[in-house]
Amino acid sequence: MAAPPTEHEILDVNRRYHDVAAETYDSKWGISFGEIGHQQVLGKITKLLGPSPGPFAHSLEIGSGTGYFSLNLLQTGVIERATCTDISPGMLVTLEQNAKDLGLEVETAACDAAELPFEDGTFDLVLGHAVLHHLPDLDQAFREFHRVLKPGGLLFFAGEPSRQGDKLAAIPKQAAVKAAPLWRKALRASSAPTHHGAPDEDEHALESVVDVHAFVPADLTRHATAGGFTDVKVQGEELLANWFGWFNRTLEASADPKDIPWGWIQYAYRGYILLQRVDRTLLEPRLPPRIFYNLMLAARKPAA
């Protein structure tokens, strides 16, 4: 049996994977920096930070990717100055171009979350989206988050996979794999091109290696508490919307993108938004966080 990858190997694979993915990341995941993006990001952050979060004078985003969270929060006034970090220089190149296109100024740094190149007590908010599950040394990372926050500063992470929710998500994925041939026939869509020899071949080769963790809520609570944080809150989000989204995404991945009609794309988007509202109003307040696909975390560094 092969030895598990070392911390250095995990970081290297994450760097290479996200460098390869950077150019097409926004289109692949439907990233929006307009009104849709504003609503999605605010919808997440207000769940744990209240209906009118901020404004935060200076934020630090961990694993910022192409800028989905920070650029939308800058545009909505939740943060006033943004520093964005990522282990992938390629992602930061795309983020800087996105910021330029939007007329926004950001500071960037390519670095490991466990070794942040900032002075103690620099930031009012440390945040991230779908990043903690990539980090091999979470205990050290949380100590770094605590160190660079000002006393009384806030921590916020969203989009972290839950262990049980990830297992439940396999159900719609498997169902979609079985349904895909009939779906493509109904839409008169060709099968997706094979990846051998394609520009994204490296991305697909690395994709299964970059996800290091899936969490139960107690995991996130423990890491935050051990890092010195108080007022720790963990909440689950997206159950029905996630099942719907993974079912449709799995179908779409089986087809040539140019053959997927606009009507289907609108159906998938509008259905996802509708089920997000059902999750938010009916399920998230009533069901245990562990069964949702995504977990969210908020905490505070004690005031001096």
From TrEMBL:
Domain of life of the native organism: Bacteria
SUPFAM superfamilies (UniProt xref): S-adenosyl-L-methionine-dependent methyltransferases
One GO molecular-function entry: S-adenosylmethionine-dependent methyltransferase activity
Biological process according to GO: methylation
Gene3D superfamilies recorded: Vaccinia Virus protein VP39
Keywords: Methyltransferase, Transferase
Pfam families: Methyltransf_11
Limits of the Methyltransferase type domain: 60-157
Coiled coil: none
Protein name from the UniProt record: Methyltransferase family protein
